[in-house]
Amino acid sequence: MLSPGTTVALRVCAVGLRPEVPVVRLWGLLGERSADYVRLRREIQAAAGPRLAAAPGHGRLEAGGAELRTGDLGLVEVVGLWYRCCVVSHHGQDYRVFLLDEGCTVVTSAYYLARGCKELFRLPPEVLGCVVADVMPSGGPKVVACGDAPASTWTVEAMEFLSYLHGKEVSGLVQEVMTPQLVVLELPQLVAQMHHLGLARQVPSSWFCQVLRRCLTYGPLRNQLKLQPPACSPVTSAVPQLHRVLLSCQPASPALDYFYPQLQLGVTEPVLVTHVCDPHRIYCQLQSLSQEIRCLSDTMRHAYDRCEQDLSPTVGSPYAARGIDGRWYRALLLELIAGEQDQQVALVIFVDYGRKEIVTRANLRHLPVECFRVPVVTYPCALQGISDGGCGWSPSQIDELKALVLGKGVSACITTFNSFEHLYYVSLYGENELELPPGAPPVALMHRDLASAPVGGVRLKLGVFHDAQVSHLRDPSEFWLQLHEHHPLFRQLRQSMWNFYCDATKLDGAGWVLQPGSLCCASGKEDVFYRAVITSVLDSGVEIHLVDRGNTEIVDRCAVKELLPQFRELPALALKCCLAGVSPLRGSWSEASLALNPCTAVTVRGGPVAAIHNSKSSESLPAQKCESKENLPISRRQNYVEMKPGSSYGGQLEVGSTVNVVVSYVENPSNFWCQLSRNCHDLNTLMAEIQEYCKNSSHPPAWPNSVCLAQYSEDEKWYRALIISEVPSAEKVEVIYVDYGNRQMVSLTNLRSTNERFLRLEAQAFRCSLYNLIQPNGQDPFAWDEEAIQAFQEFVDTSSHFELKCTIFALASINNKELFNIVDLMTPFQSACQFLTKRGVARPLSPQKPLVSSVQLHSYYYSMHDIKIGSEEDVYITHVEDPWTFFCQLERCADILAQLTDNISHLSEKMTSLKTLQKSGSLCLAKYTDNQWYRGVIMKTKPNTEVFFVDFGNTETIEKDHLLPLPSDACDILLLPMQAIKCSLSDISNYLVDNVNDIMTENLFLNMNCIFKTVQDDKCLTFKY
């Protein structure tokens, strides 16, 4: 039994910190679990049940599964284990429960709850609750004197600091024992550290005792906590007291006795603005009942001015209250503030006017029945279309709004109702139907920081230095930055979200449907809240991308809530970047290359490409220099639209790669154009510069230069274009818009000469086709009917809500002129080929189907060979560069490879007299040192010819007379997918590289078993010997 002055060592398992509650609470265990609780846990697993409800979708409560009420004890299943719990609150089938022996709160459903027998609750809760003594928010001890007055609250930085106590052991002195499971604990080292960091301040014990007393007398808890525990089982006395302390940190949810009629949406009502807190909390009273409300006040004045009542006020009950102006109002009691009973004061809200006041007990009266006959017609409202960006409103902004509307009769157009916050969103109109405030949203109400900060889409100028911090690092080719200039906005946003979502219990289990692509608010490991996008809904949780940090995490479903509109205004603050001018030495980045300084200066080279300037170190990353394309000579402008075979789109679209794309133009499933998602910001910046340039330019393009800027007829904006044909008599030319793919006839007057700087960004659109993966229902593989085109367009439009991936299966051309990529588009749910096949507008094809005569292949086909994540395969290792780059063949494809060898042998005998091709990127047959012929690609021709063997993974120098071209009609050889699978070994430390390399090289062409951990681009493998 603990007593004052006892020294305890507490292993922290939960931290309780809420913005408006000025005390720090910890829950933890005293030492290791005792044998009694270990035995109890085993008994709970054996005796749990029956569940309160059937599985979702299987009906209502089971027989005997009576509903648990607030304060009841029960059992809850969490990840397959049962725990003792106490119900904190519940709404329908959704419950919030406190785990008695773990010290944390979870959100669950009735299916995961059971009552449990009384024997399981004989032991008291193993967790001990502590209040940290003599520490308060850094603003000092303040008492909320009015509903609108700002009080000192905890910051999100304080929450993050305290979250690091999870799992740590703290030692302190018991100052006071409040209940058997709740003590006041002195932790001087923790308090001193928080004070030093500016997160809190140490206060005198007398001050702290007053504040703590007020917290524990929140609502009706003071008298309940003074009750002597009954002499029954220890848990039944300890848990309710612990539960009440938990409730003291929850916002009050009083049961209203007033009647609030629901307003009709889409109508305009004349209202009187009675109170203004901020633009998102304005109280509007229907003018149609204003006279009756004033009469109520007069009736209460005559009844109460000359009489007194002795009452015991109860939080959540309706009363008549006299305000500081001496008038009587209908009120709702929100909070009782500490003091002896005859000196007790209360915080009330005047329901007909919306304002809050502190009143004495002597100025409270019971409301007669007749005062409830007039409904409450004063509604909390928020101005539609105006936002603070999640950063709060300044006093000057609120004062300006009050001057415009407070106490005035206006018209309110009611647009929507937010059931979570019980708010109506309205637009206010004054005389002559002028919107109030003028202009929506008004500049006067814009947050000062938002108005001046360059975050309107977070566009950065080229060549400008920015102080930044690396918020998430994957590798030097993909990392995220936060600009230092945005830190104040980010801090204010996080604080506002924490303040709101700590109290937003109505959002728990509110029936919000989790969908990929939806914006959400997610609580992280530090118990703070972040903005995120749902990327995938899994059985085990939800995968989210944190838009202000850049990283991706998997969190529990209960950690995800809907992101409300006021937190969506500020753009995503994490900027996705890659390091300019470098690439990894051996195809992948080593651990040493991940040593970027977190705080650094960056120069923007172009869109997401950045040069890092480390002020603390001059060391460079282990990488090789890449050829820059910023200063290409005019003679190389053909790269503007041309994509070379084998290295299309600057090497970013290698056959077998998977990239995120945006579909920019659709003609049909065999002819559409895509852009890389990663370059969209670059393109938007370039488009803005082009529009500005064309405003001040009237120069026609210089003939015969075909590169120009052309005005698009539908939106009259200017785009980069290439002239592809002329109509001299009509003074028109046909152009292709190289960043989008569509074509148009354009008048010569709508052409402009381009500027050299507009050519630095390569053409963004690349042509794609589903050709030879699926085929229309007719015989012509390029002739699609209108139904198929509409279905494909539907797939593209629907995929705009998700991350659309594009896998490159081959590179081809039409009549050796028009290059296109044979691809499939994939959402997280299905591919374009699957979608069209299921719709019945296309049929699947085998890749070995012969090509039509007009189509030529410029690469071999890529295949994923139906490999699934987690699947086991027998493989042969065919070539090893290092543990992170090696190639395998599947054992189940041995017969296919044997047939391929025979086909190549027969073909090579017929072609010995043909001349060999010398062009880089050409497909060929090459003779290896074993005098056998194999499929290959010519990688370079000078100084020596090097060939990559696509079915084995090695690159060798080959004599020119050992090369043969592949004829286009050799379908059995040309159309068979490449058999060498590029892989990377998972979970290998650097110091094991040499040993692993030797082992893998010694086991070339030996049969081995492996597990595929990822299936995309380079596969990661775990081998079994």
How would you explain this protein's 3D organization?
Helix 12 crosses helix 13. It contains 16 helices and 58 strands. It is globular, with a radius of gyration of 36 Å. The chain is an alpha+beta fold and 1025 residues long. 17% of the residues lie in helices and 34% in strands. Keywords: Coiled coil.
Average pLDDT reading: 76
Low-pLDDT sequence parts = 57-65, 140-151, 218-256, 439-457, 607-651
Q: Strand tally, please?
A: 58
Taking strands numbered 1, 2, ... along the chain, how are they ordered across the largest sheet? 1-2-8-11-10
Class inferred from helices and paired strands: alpha+beta
Pfam family, one: TUDOR
Organism: Accipiter nisus
Domain Tudor: 312-374, 513-570, 701-761, 917-973
Coiled coil: 890-917
List the helices and strands and how they pair.
Blueprint: E1 7-16, E2 25-30, H1 35-47, E3 73-78, E4 81-91, E5 94-99, E6 104-109, E7 113-114, E8 128-132, E9 135-137, H2 156-163, E10 169-179, E11 182-186, H3 188-196, E12 200-202, H4 205-216, H5 221-226, H6 234-247, E13 268-278, E14 281-286, H7 290-304, E15 318-322, E16 328-337, E17 345-350, E18 356-360, E19 364-365, E20 378-383, H8 395-405, E21 409-418, E22 423-429, E23 435-436, H9 448-452, E24 465-475, E25 478-483, H10 487-501, E26 519-523, E27 529-537, E28 542-546, E29 552-555, E30 560-562, E31 575-579, E32 582-584, E33 599-606, E34 609-613, E35 623-625, E36 658-668, E37 671-676, H11 680-695, E38 707-711, E39 718-727, E40 732-737, E41 743-747, E42 751-752, E43 766-769, E44 774-776, H12 786-799, E45 805-814, E46 818-826, H13 832-839, E47 842-844, E48 855-857, E49 872-882, E50 885-890, H14 894-910, E51 923-927, E52 933-940, E53 946-949, E54 955-957, E55 963-965, H15 971-974, E56 981-985, H16 993-1002, E57 1007-1014, E58 1019-1024
Parallel strand pairs: 8-11, 20-22, 31-34, 43-46, 56-58
Antiparallel strand pairs: 1-2, 1-10, 2-8, 3-4, 3-7, 4-5, 5-6, 9-12, 10-11, 13-14, 13-21, 14-20, 15-16, 15-19, 16-17, 17-18, 21-22, 22-23, 24-25, 24-33, 25-31, 26-27, 26-30, 27-28, 28-29, 32-35, 33-34, 36-37, 36-45, 37-43, 38-39, 38-42, 39-40, 40-41, 44-47, 45-46, 45-48, 49-50, 49-57, 50-56, ...
Helix pairs in contact: 12-13
Protein name: Tudor domain containing 6
Coiled coil: 890-917
Pfam family, one: TUDOR
